[in-house]
Amino acid sequence: MQRNSGKTFKAIVIGVSTGGVTALKKLLGGLPTDFPLPILVVSHISPDSDDGLAVLLDTLCSIHVKEANEGELIMPGTVYLAPANYHLLLERDSTIAFSIDSPVNFARPSVDVLFESAADVYNKTLIGILLTGAGNDGSKGMLKIKNRGGTVIVQDPVDAEMDSMPKSALQLLKADYVVCLKNIPELLHNIVEGKL
Amino acid sequence: MTQMTGDEISDIEIKLLMEGLFQVYGHDFRDYSEASLRRRLNQWLSTSGFATISLAQSQLLRDRALFETLLRGITVNVSEMFRDPSFFKAIREHIVPYLKTYPFVKIWHAGCASGEEAYSMAILLIEEGLQGRFRIYATDINEEVIQKAQGGIYPLQELQHFTRNYQNAGGTGSFSDYYTARYDHAILSANLRENIVFAAHSLAVDADFGEMNMILCRNVMIYFKQPLKERVLALFDSSLITGGFLCLGTKETLDNRNISSQYETIVPRMQIYRKRYAKK
């Protein structure tokens, strides 16, 4: 229980694939408008998608949700979604970068690309969350976050619409928390407030 | 002084190497955005057999062949034919009518990678009746990739995707008329290549191209830091005729740049801009 005490967190990254819309509605829907950290999300979407998912989530959630813009400085209380067909990365000055490098794990945007670049920037002050999805994108990224001293949360495979992404991560690393989706907002609140 | 972390040290190694590569080979990556550069360098490093950038540096600065492998790794830009079909549709519907008013149209495709988008533009302009009235100057920093672009040969497995893009981009013909399939590759028709001049050109160090009617530079500057972005935009500005068109990637914008005020937005979400006629 001492594990995270005294830690201050700077950002949260979330990776999700199949079942993403429902999962993000639940998770982000449970966060308050004044949530104290910026949140970056990679959700696997088809290459020709527009910003519809961000617009939808923004209307359903109290926290502000938007599609990420290139060069944008990330702010607390805001959720940034990776646009379709671009990898989302983070620069050391906490601004958003894009790349059209080849798909990673058959995905662009790829969860691993975001997680690994965010781990480079935030090290132990980063929280990584891996949710439902097919395939294994995000596992390597979660391992890097963990190795850099960050906190990793994996959706309980039993609770996930598709369990292979969470399962794959759990085979690679020991998560700090394995929880059901509905409990993540409260868990985040407690972690960020230093109650855990 | 406290010991630096491994990350901090590797950031310094990258800076030192970029300075060395510039001085030895003239290739300037000092103003490339770090996140992608770091990822690409680490990928190269993991296949190179060197444990750190510093250990690789000595040989990189002396062995051009090794440097070429690194160059390939950090400048590779992937593309596809008719990437963002709605962009090409917008060109067809909103820009081609202007281009048709000129006796001859010159287009600079900056950062053309393996040529997919340059060929896409050639197909579009031919379908719009501009055959023989346009030339595309397609440039990239990477000479190897330019050679590949000249060949116009792509894996057959990608053609299905290209065909779908072509249709969504408002193609008026049959995409299969533009290539011949051989074994597992497709070679694009020679008459497309006739309209394109491929050349090596570095946006970071080389000079402008004159008198262009349209410049496309899509998803290239996303890898550049602000000062290099400004340099490249100034280069484009001096290469573009008044009333010419500047096209960026759909997630790039001309907002808050030095040249912004001289440009008007023509197709908002597609990032197609036009250089204004001088104010009277």
Describe the structure.
The complex is a heterodimer of chains A (196) and B (280). Chain A is α/β, with parallel strands linked by helices. Chain A has a single domain, classed as 3-Layer(aba) Sandwich (Rossmann fold). Helix content of chain A is 30%, strand content 20%. Chain A has six helices and nine strands, in the order E-H-E-H-E-E-E-E-H-E-H-E-H-E-H. Chain A has helices at 20-29, 52-60, 111-122, 139-147, 164-172, 184-192; strands at 11-16, 39-43, 64-67, 78-81, 87-90, 96-99, 126-130, 151-155, 177-179. Chain A has a seven-stranded parallel beta sheet with strand order 3-4-2-1-7-8-9, with helices on both faces. In chain A, strands 5-6 form a two-stranded antiparallel ribbon. In chain A, strand 8 (151-155), helix 5 (164-172) and strand 9 form a beta-alpha-beta unit. The longest helix of chain A has 12 residues, at 111-122. Chain B is α/β, with parallel strands linked by helices and 280 residues long. Chain B folds into two domains: 6-75, no CATH class; 85-275, Rossmann fold. Chain B is built from ten helices and ten strands. Chain B has helices spanning 6-25, 34-48, 53-62, 64-75, 85-99, 116-127, 143-151, 156-168, 190-193, 226-239, and strands at residues 105-110, 134-140, 153-155, 179-182, 185-188, 196-200, 212-217, 240-248, 263-267, 272-275. Chain B has a seven-stranded mixed beta sheet. Chain B has a three-stranded antiparallel beta sheet with strand order 3-5-4. The model of chain B has no long low-confidence stretch (mean pLDDT 93). The interface between A and B is medium-sized, with 22 and 26 residues.
